[in-house]
């Protein structure tokens, strides 16, 4: 089989002129462009496309099929295709239509091969032999989420470019929704995989936003929201300063996602940045460029952190962005180098506004210092399109779909004492078409109450904080407050149920300590604490010589069992509204046998939850790296929660992936108000 420029057979979709012929010069919503002129950027893209097409776009396996060869990387036997590469091709070719007169013919051939090699769930078999064109990987044929995403996005690009692919796209997105999306909304690693893990390099938020605009029959905004939450939860715990995400993540269906074990899915350290997650700054930077700092706030923030980290790691030389990087932004190994690691940072560097770093990466794109094959050259092709400003967004051009948005409140209900205030997050999302300005208002307030929004209007995809302030005379009761969002497309509403309880009497605050059994000295009777352990042990236990109490004879002892375990204790407390400050304090000791200075397999968190179980805030995060001699006291402000009934929760989690174990011990807790 050889690389050809046309198919022998008549394509399924008759060729028509492209609606968005290359080049399509885009004005991104944030960041900088490379210093090279637009004409020079266009010419560089064309040169790379000619090289990529001649080397990797193959006419086969049948006369009406094309595939992207994995030549140079041995990702499939006999340089056959993988679904990831097929997705790359189905993105690249529609974007180059107009420059490439045969683009639609080639796209139809790429799509035909996908249709002829679907697994039992209607998604592409992820790995095919280059000679037999049969699935050759072990087990029942299955699909990979990254390829599935790019194929779906490619169908939307083709539909906007030429028309006629709507039915194919909708069928594909339905299969993707049914088999690649976990129940909580995060992306699985493959269609037949568990609901507990994810691969951050699959998190193509620009693709998901296009899905939301194109397909309103599925709640893609749920996937977007959960993906952003997951990335925030993970990076806050494991890479707060650098925004790095490991190749694979486990516990993705919880609020405590963590790095996968070292060889979780591939024969490399999957618990750090590797050949999968080098693609993360490309995807996050692209979403930030296209959708701006409000809609893509999470991606923008993490793209800036990762760009700065990798610039520092490499000394500003993209060749020294290493394919394997620890989560604290130090090289795992400097002996392994690949151009795609530096190339992929380009969109993040642009979004962060770093001109010199952007120019350095742009200049590297014209080279191939390490002889990268299919993987690096395909990534380079797509990064070139983004950095040149030729990467147009199918969600905002030629949609034929009216813009619309959705509205939500989180939490959906709350309680407050008369005379105090309650806060709730009002979220918006693009339901179809383009993002638009949404103004916010509230009605149905109880007497004596007022409502304010910060900000009073948002761009759909953003959020606002609603503060409902009650007066001392506001009657007790439950009130359904209607939040209304109004935009050019129309209005939508969401409900927040506010329960007002009788005032605690006003007047001066009585200073007090509010926690029951604060030093755990009630012994086996742990109330009013509630406790849990995945191994069945009660964390509230008698002190030992190995783990002595700070005072008294009892402690709360989390983990330390040398095996995977999650332990919690929690207590619900009503914070009075007529006090001005509330402070949590406790004494903590951490010891560990984990032999690492960077990895954090064992973690401990201190959180505040509302009555619905929603986390209002994480007060403190610790790990095996915070080991200490003796006890140290920690204090956190609870003043923002005065007037509310909240649950204080301590959680220790141990994965036991490095062979050691960590003991988290606390004692002498207190919540003092005055």
From TrEMBL:
Pfam families: Glyco_hydro_8. The keyword Hydrolase applies. One of its GO terms (molecular function) is hydrolase activity, hydrolyzing O-glycosyl compounds. The keyword Hydrolase applies. InterPro entries: 6-hairpin_glycosidase_sf (IPR008928), 6hp_glycosidase-like_sf (IPR012341), Glyco_hydro_8 (IPR002037). Keywords: Glycosidase, Hydrolase. One of its GO terms (biological process) is carbohydrate metabolic process. It comes from the Bacteria. Belongs to the glycosyl hydrolase 8 (cellulase D) family. This is Glycoside hydrolase. The lineage of its organism: Bacteria, Bacillati, Actinomycetota, Actinomycetes, Kitasatosporales.
């Amino acid at each position: 089989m050889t690389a050809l420029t046309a198919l022998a057979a008549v394509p399924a979709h008759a060729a028509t002129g492209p609606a968005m012929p290359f080049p399509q010069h885009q004005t991104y919503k944030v960041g900088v462009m490379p210093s090279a002129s637009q004409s020079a950027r266009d010419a560089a893209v064309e040169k790379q496309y000619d090289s990529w097409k001649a080397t990797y776009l193959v006419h086969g396996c049948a006369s009406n099929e094309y595939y992207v060869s994995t030549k140079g990387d041995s990702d499939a036997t006999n340089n056959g295709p993988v679904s990831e590469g097929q997705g790359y091709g189905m993105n690249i070719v529609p974007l180059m239509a107009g420059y490439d007169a045969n683009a639609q013919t080639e796209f139809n051939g790429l799509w035909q091969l996908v249709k002829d090699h679907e697994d039992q769930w209607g998604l592409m078999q992820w790995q095919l032999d280059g000679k037999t064109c049969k699935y050759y990987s072990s087990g029942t044929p299955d699909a990979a989420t990254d390829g599935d995403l790019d194929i779906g996005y490619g169908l939307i690009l083709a539909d906007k470019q030429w028309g006629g692919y709507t039915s194919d796209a909708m069928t594909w997105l339905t299969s993707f929704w049914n088999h690649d999306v976990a129940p909580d909304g995060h992306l699985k690693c493959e269609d037949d995989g568990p609901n507990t893990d994810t691969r951050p390099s699959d998190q193509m938020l620009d693709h998901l936003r296009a899905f939301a605009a194109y397909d309103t029959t599925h709640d893609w905004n749920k996937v977007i929201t959960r993906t952003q939450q997951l990335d925030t939860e993970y990076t806050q715990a494991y890479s707060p300063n650098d925004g790095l995400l490991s190749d694979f993540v486990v516990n993705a269906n919880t609020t405590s996602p963590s790095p996968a074990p070292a060889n979780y899915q591939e024969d490399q350290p999957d618990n750090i940045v590797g050949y999968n997650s080098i693609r993360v700054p490309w995807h996050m930077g692209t979403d930030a460029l296209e959708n701006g700092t409000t809609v893509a706030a999470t991606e923008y923030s993490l793209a800036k952190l990762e760009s700065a980290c990798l610039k520092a790691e490499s000394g500003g030389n993209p060749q020294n962005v290493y394919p394997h990087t620890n989560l604290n932004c130090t090289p795992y190994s400097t002996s392994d180098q690949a151009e795609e690691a530096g190339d992929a940072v380009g969109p993040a560097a642009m979004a962060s506004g770093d001109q010199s770093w952007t120019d350095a990466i742009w200049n590297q794109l014209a080279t191939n210092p390490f002889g990268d094959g299919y993987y690096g050259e395909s990534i380079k092709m797509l990064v070139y399109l983004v950095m040149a400003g030729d990467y147009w967004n199918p969600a905002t051009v030629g949609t034929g779909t009216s813009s619309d948005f959705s509205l939500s409140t989180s939490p959906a209900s709350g309680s407050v004492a008369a005379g105090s205030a309650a806060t709730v997050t009002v979220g918006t999302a693009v339901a179809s078409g383009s993002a638009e300005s949404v103004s916010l208002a509230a009605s149905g307030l109880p007497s004596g109450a007022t409502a304010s929004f910060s900000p009073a209007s948002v761009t759909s995809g953003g959020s606002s904080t609603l503060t409902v302030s009650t007066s001392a005379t506001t009657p007790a009761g439950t009130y359904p407050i209607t939040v209304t969002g109004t935009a050019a497309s129309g209005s939508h509403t969401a409900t927040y149920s506010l329960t007002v309880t009788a005032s605690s009497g006003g007047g001066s605050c009585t200073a007090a300590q509010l926690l029951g059994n604060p030093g755990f000295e009630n012994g086996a009777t742990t109330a009013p604490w509630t406790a849990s352990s995945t191994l069945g042990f009660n964390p509230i236990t008698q002190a030992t010589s190995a783990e002595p109490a700070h005072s008294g004879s009892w402690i709360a002892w989390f983990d330390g069992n040398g095996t995977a375990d999650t332990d919690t204790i929690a207590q619900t407390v009503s914070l009075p509204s007529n006090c001005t400050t509330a402070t949590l304090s406790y004494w903590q000791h951490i010891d560990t046998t984990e032999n690492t200075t960077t990895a954090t397999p064992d973690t401990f968190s201190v959180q505040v939850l509302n009555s619905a179980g929603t986390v209002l805030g994480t007060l403190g995060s610790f790990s095996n790296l915070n080991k200490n001699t003796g006890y140290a006291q920690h204090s956190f402000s609870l003043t923002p929660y005065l007037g509310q009934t909240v649950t204080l929760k301590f959680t220790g989690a141990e994965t036991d992936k490095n062979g050691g174990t960590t003991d988290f011990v606390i004692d002498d807790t207190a919540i003092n108000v005055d």
